Amino acid sequence: MTDSSTDPVDRFLDAARDETAELPFRLTGVMFQYYVVCERELWFLSRDVEIDRDTPSIVRGSDVDDSAYSDKRRDVRVDGIIAIDVLDSGEILEVKPSSSMTEPARLQLLFYLWYLDRVTGVEKTGVLAHPTEKRRETIELTPETSAEVESAIRGIREVVTAESPPPAEGKPVCDSCAYHDFCWSC
Amino acid sequence: MNDNYHVFSDGRIERQDDTVRVVTDDGEKKYLPVENAEAIFLHGQLEYNTRFVSFLNQEGVAVHVFGWHDHYAGSIMPKRGQTSGQTIVDQVRAYDDPGHRLKLAKAFVDGSIHNMRSNVTYYDGRGYDFEHVLEELEDARASLDGMGTIDETMGVEARARKAYYSTFDEILPEGFVFGGRQYNPPNNEVNSLISFGNSLVYANIVSAIRATALDPTVSYLHEPGERRYSLALDIADLFKPLLADRVIFRLVNRGQLTTDDFEDDMNSCLLNEAGRKTYSKAYEKTLDETIDHPDLGKKVSYQYLLRVEAYKLKKHLLTGEEYVPFRRWW
């Protein structure tokens, strides 16, 4: 499946720029969040391990996402790979229910900006918004943040192509994670 | 949460606005609040239509149908929320690898012997002398290691269950003669109770497996079935002593079930409607009992233990992390 001699970032970009080529591995925006929060969760996601959709934190996240800025945003799909919300002002929006998930959301947003820049040649600025806290943060693509995205792509590839997930590791987020009972039952 | 509803009357079951109602043949109307339901068990002769089935599908509620002699007839399962090809592939791979299949089959038997033992130990400490049975169960469990085939492993299970069932005649009061397991049809009250209890455990596990992307027909101890959800049989063996058998002991020893709750047919003996109601009520109460789960760090219901078991198996198949069967730890 993989050719270790080529950098995953180059291979991803090659495939993303060429409509006929198949992506070397599935990469979605939310994977960048999981990569920061929990690599084991990322591995489960990559294998379509289903989760209990009734978990309160999941329901809450979807509700905030659906209701925020509803009059000023448009859902835009690009190349079937990324799905972004574009504000009237042209900025790319990422909505988070709470500021505790800022770092993971920031990386996801950076990936979108990076993808637009590298694949479609469009330079955009991002907005990370916490509607419940009435707070917005501007996110920009720089050589440093680009390097962050590229290093995350390599890291994500490592995780999702592994035969088995990293072992369970107790973290504060475990308590509210939808995979909690799946992970910790033994 | 995760309530089961049992319908014993004959009549119609239908969608009525955003709920389900039963209209019995004598015109009585009963409503089932299904928003938190896991499944509806139909024991009586009931008519229903596609509107009812679509509604339950939308609500994610299963229907388990029981037919003649209250035999499990089949289930109408809500459509899957999510599927996972990888899970099915890994599940079948494990079946197809003789070593892996045997290991899982032994785990199921090992766990069920432990759980049978747990019931016997309880009565051994309450005035009965079951030392010899405990030894027999221990021997059977120890012999598992040396078994090289599924058939031999099945044999160990049968031997253990026979020893376990031999305690029933002593535990249960006079008038309830067991004399060994008979089914199709059950020949006496005790066999009828075991059959009924086991079928409820089985149906609940069918629901629990559905909550994962596991295929209920691909199993390890039992041969994958054409008409049966054989993976539910594998898992049911682990839980029968905890869920089904303890209810029998409790109801019969307290006189809540008597021989009046059964009807004799030509060559069978079955629970009558009152008996089935009494049993399923006590069974549902057992499912709601909770226990501190040391791994999960919270209290969980016995019913949730079934879900956890399905999770554990799926996790094992997907990640290779060890599968440790449910062993009663309290």
TrEMBL record, chain A:
Top-level EC class as recorded in UniProt: hydrolase
TM helices/strands, residue ranges: none
Biological process according to GO: defense response to virus
GO function terms (MF aspect): exonuclease activity; iron-sulfur cluster binding; metal ion binding
Entry EC number(s): 3.1.12.1
DUF83 domain segment(s): 28-185
Keywords linked to the UniProt accession: Antiviral defense, Exonuclease, Hydrolase, Iron, Iron-sulfur, Manganese, Metal-binding, Nuclease
InterPro entries: CRISPR-assoc_prot_Cas4, Dna2/Cas4_DUF83, PDDEXK-like_dom_sf
Cofactor binding annotation: Mg(2+) or Mn(2+) required for ssDNA cleavage activity.
Cofactor dependency: Mg(2+); Mn(2+); iron-sulfur cluster
Family: Belongs to the CRISPR-associated exonuclease Cas4 family.
Reported function: CRISPR (clustered regularly interspaced short palindromic repeat) is an adaptive immune system that provides protection against mobile genetic elements (viruses, transposable elements and conjugative plasmids). CRISPR clusters contain sequences complementary to antecedent mobile elements and target invading nucleic acids. CRISPR clusters are transcribed and processed into CRISPR RNA (crRNA).
Protein name: CRISPR-associated exonuclease Cas4
Lineage: Archaea, Methanobacteriati, Methanobacteriota, Stenosarchaea group, Halobacteria
Automatic annotation (TrEMBL), chain B:
EC numbers: 3.1.-.-
Keyword Coiled coil: no
Residues the record lists as binding Mn(2+): E157, H222, D237
GO biological process, one term: defense response to virus
Family the UniProt entry places it in: Belongs to the CRISPR-associated endonuclease Cas1 family.
HAMAP family assigned: Cas1 (MF_01470)
UniProt function note: CRISPR (clustered regularly interspaced short palindromic repeat), is an adaptive immune system that provides protection against mobile genetic elements (viruses, transposable elements and conjugative plasmids). CRISPR clusters contain spacers, sequences complementary to antecedent mobile elements, and target invading nucleic acids. CRISPR clusters are transcribed and processed into CRISPR RNA (crRNA). Acts as a dsDNA endonuclease. Involved in the integration of spacer DNA into the CRISPR cassette.
Protein's UniProt name: CRISPR-associated endonuclease Cas1
Organism per entry: Natrinema saccharevitans
Encoding gene (name): cas1
